[in-house]
Design the sequence.
C-alpha cells in the first residue's frame, strides 16, 4: 500500500508522455466499434494505441494484480463503475479527471446524464467517464393487453399488478409477470421497485436502510407479484437469461428488465413473440417512476500512468459526441443527452423503447445496487428478502435481518 500511495501522489504527467498509449478494454460491442475507428484517432493525434482486450473475469484479475501493485503499464482502463468504482476510487487507482473534463469545451461534460455521471464521480471529483448506459423498462405483450381490453400499458405498479392478474386469469399457462428471482441477480432489477416506493439501500446519512417501511413494501410487492402472478413452480435462482427465455417463449405478459437486452425479445431468431413485444417506461410507485439509469461501463485513467495527458486525449475522443453518436447508431446506448435528443441517435431503436428510455434518463437513479467495495457480498445480503418474499416468508423480519448484516458490512468498510 506504500507503493500505491506513492504512485497515487506522484502519478501523472505534465507533458504529452509516450506516443504509445496502452488501453485495456473489455470484450464488448463498444470495444469492437472503437477499434474500427482507431486509425482515425491515431491519424489525428500521431499516437499509437495498443489495445489489450479481455473478458470480464480476466479484466478484473488483471486490474486486481496490476493496480494493486501500482503498475504504470495501463494508461486507459475500461471499468464497471457500480461494481468496481468505489474500490478503485477509494484505493486511488483512478486519476482525478475533473479539471480536464471541465476544461474542455468540446468535450461538454454537462452533456452527460446526471445519473451516470454521478456514478463515475467520487467525493465530488470526476474519476471516470460513462460510455455505456442501461435503464430498466417494462417489456410487455401487445397482443395479450389488447385481448384483455387494455389500450395502453400500465403506468403504475398497481396497474401492472392488476393487468398481470387479469391476463393470467384469461390465459391459462401464461404468467402475468416474470423477472429475475436469483438472490444476487435480482437486486439490480429490484432496485427500480425500491426507488419507486421511495426507498434506497442506504439513507441520507449513509446508514443501511433496507428495513425502512418503503423498502419492506417494495420487497413485498416485488416478491408478491412473482409469487402470485409469476410462472408456476417459479425458481428462485433465475438471472436475466432464464427470465428472458420465459418471456420470449410466450409464457409471460410482463417483464421488467434492462433495456440493453431488448434485442433478445425483438429478434425473430431468438423470440417467438418478437412481433408483439412492446416497451414502456417503468411503472410509477408511491414515489413516482424511478428506474435506475446507470453506466454499465466507463473509461478511466490509471493514476499510476505516466501518460495521463495522452490518456485523456483518448477518452476525450472515444467518449466525445461524434463517437457517442456512432456507437448509439450501432445499438450501444450512451450517456450523452445530445445523442438521445438527436433523431439519428434513436433511429435504430423501436420508438416505444426510445420513448421509455427518455423517461428513464430524466427521472433515473444513478445506481442499481449498493455502492460499496464488497458489491457481490452486499448483493447476497440485500437480495435475501427478495427470495423470502417470493417464497412467502416473513418479509419484514427478513428485511430487518438483512439490514443488520448490511450495516455490519458498511461498518467494516469504513
Sequence:
Amino acid at each position: 500500500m506504500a507503493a500505491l500511495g506513492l504512485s497515487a501522489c506522484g502519478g501523472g504527467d505534465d507533458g504529452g508522455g509516450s506516443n504509445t498509449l496502452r488501453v485495456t478494454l473489455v470484450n464488448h460491442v463498444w470495444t469492437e466499434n472503437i477499434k474500427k475507428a482507431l486509425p482515425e484517432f491515431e491519424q489525428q493525434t500521431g499516437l499509437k494505441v495498443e489495445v489489450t482486450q479481455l473478458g470480464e473475469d480476466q479484466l478484473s484479475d488483471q486490474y486486481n494484480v496490476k493496480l494493486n501493485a501500482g503498475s504504470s503499464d495501463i494508461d486507459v482502463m475500461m471499468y464497471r463503475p457500480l461494481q468496481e468504482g468505489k474500490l478503485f476510487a477509494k484505493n486511488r487507482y483512478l486519476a482525478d479527471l475533473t479539471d480536464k473534463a471541465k476544461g474542455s469545451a468540446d468535450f461538454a461534460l454537462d452533456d452527460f446524464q446526471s445519473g451516470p455521471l454521478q456514478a463515475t464521480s467520487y467525493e465530488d471529483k470526476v474519476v471516470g467517464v460513462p460510455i455505456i448506459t442501461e435503464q430498466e423498462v417494462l417489456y410487455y405483450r401487445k397482443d395479450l393487453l389488447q385481448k384483455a381490453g387494455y389500450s395502453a400499458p400500465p403506468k403504475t405498479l398497481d396497474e401492472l399488478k392488476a393487468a398481470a392478474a387479469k391476463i393470467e386469469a384469461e390465459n391459462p399457462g401464461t404468467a402475468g409477470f416474470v423477472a429475475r428471482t436469483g438472490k444476487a441477480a435480482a437486486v439490480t432489477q429490484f432496485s427500480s421497485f425500491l426507488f419507486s416506493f421511495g426507498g434506497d439501500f442506504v439513507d441520507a446519512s449513509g446508514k443501511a436502510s433496507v428495513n425502512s417501511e418503503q423498502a419492506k413494501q417494495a420487497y413485498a410487492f416485488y416478491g408478491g407479484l412473482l409469487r402470485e402472478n409469476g410462472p408456476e413452480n417459479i425458481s428462485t435462482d433465475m438471472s436475466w437469461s432464464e427470465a428472458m427465455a420465459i418471456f420470449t417463449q410466450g409464457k409471460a405478459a410482463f417483464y421488467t428488465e434492462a433495456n440493453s437486452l431488448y434485442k433478445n425479445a425483438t429478434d425473430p431468431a431468438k423470440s417467438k413473440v418478437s412481433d408483439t413485444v412492446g416497451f414502456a417506461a417503468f411503472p410509477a410507485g408511491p414515489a413516482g417512476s424511478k428506474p435506475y439509469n446507470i453506466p454499465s461501463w466507463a473509461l478511466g485513467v490509471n493514476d499510476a500512468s505516466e501518460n495521463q495527458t495522452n490518456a485523456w486525449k483518448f477518452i476525450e475522443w472515444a467518449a466525445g459526441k461524434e463517437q457517442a453518436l456512432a456507437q448509439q447508431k450501432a445499438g450501444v446506448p450512451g450517456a450523452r443527452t445530445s445523442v438521445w435528443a438527436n433523431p439519428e441517435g434513436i433511429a435504430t431503436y423501436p420508438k416505444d423503447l426510445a420513448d421509455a428510455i427518455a423517461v428513464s434518463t430524466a427521472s433515473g437513479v444513478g445506481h442499481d445496487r449498493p455502492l460499496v467495495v464488497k458489491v457481490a457480498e452486499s448483493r447476497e445480503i440485500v437480495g435475501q428478502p427478495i427470495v423470502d418474499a417470493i417464497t412467502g416468508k416473513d418479509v419484514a423480519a427478513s428485511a430487518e435481518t438483512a439490514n443488520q448484516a448490511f450495516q455490519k458490512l458498511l461498518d467494516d468498510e469504513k
User: Anything to note?
Assistant: The first helix runs from residue 2 to 10. The chain has two domains: 2-134+293-363, 135-291+367-413. The first strand starts at residue 20 and ends at 26.
